[in-house]
Amino acid sequence: MLCGIDEAGRGPLAGPLVVVGVILKEKVEGLNDSKQLSEKKREKLFDEIKQKSFYHVVFTDSKTIDEKGLSACLKLSIKEIMENLKKEASSFLMDGNTSFGIQNLQYKIKADATVEEVSAASILAKVSRDNYMKEIALKFPKYIFEKHKGYGTKAHIELIKEYGRCEEHRTTFKIKGIDDILNQDSLF
């Protein structure tokens, strides 16, 4: 059985990296790249995918991303998924253009839109991460994480300019034009 692997949260300025592996046990209708689906459709598919699959979800917090680097965190997450799903999976396929040097990991660009298991992983990763960002929005209301999910939107960057970074922000992700301001003001 194929284990599809995908991630959400590679590029945001705040919040975790979420990597998911999925092995479908039953057919799930309507799968696609999570970015091509509405939030409502993703959330509906989320529960169905969980019921009809073996899956493993790995969260890596922003502090660990800053300490180890994004590529190392991706690689560690993929290895954890492979270890946890090795009994059920006969092969592993990652969305993207690299295997991160991991043996027995295949990769395919746009697999999240063309391979059902990877589409399912894409949806679980996106919804899991979005739900996390909605939860932390309650702890850090001034950043409005529930709206932009930690991505570098104009509104989010303006809030960082105003308040500095919180513990959910990735300090190694530099923001053009404001890191100099933040460093001068010692806001973080």
Layout of strands and helices, then pairs:
Blueprint: E1 2-8, E2 17-24, H1 39-51, E3 53-60, H2 62-68, H3 70-85, E4 91-95, E5 105-108, H4 111-114, H5 116-139, H6 145-148, H7 154-163, H8 179-185
Parallel strand pairs: 1-4, 4-5
Antiparallel strand pairs: 1-2, 2-3
Helix pairs in contact: 1-5, 2-3
Subcellular location: Cytoplasm
Protein name: Ribonuclease HII
Catalytic activity: Endonucleolytic cleavage to 5'-phosphomonoester
Please characterize this protein's 3D structure.
The N and C termini lie far apart (47 Å). It is built from eight helices and five strands; from the N terminus they run ββαβααββααααα. The protein folds into two domains: 133 residues, Ribonuclease H-like superfamily/Ribonuclease H (Nucleotidyltransferase, domain 5, 2-Layer Sandwich); 45 residues. The C terminus is likely disordered. With 188 residues, the chain is an alpha/beta fold. A five-stranded mixed sheet has the order 3-2-1-4-5, sandwiched between helices. This is Ribonuclease HII. It catalyses: Endonucleolytic cleavage to 5'-phosphomonoester. Its main location: cytoplasm. Belongs to the RNase HII family. It comes from Halarcobacter mediterraneus.
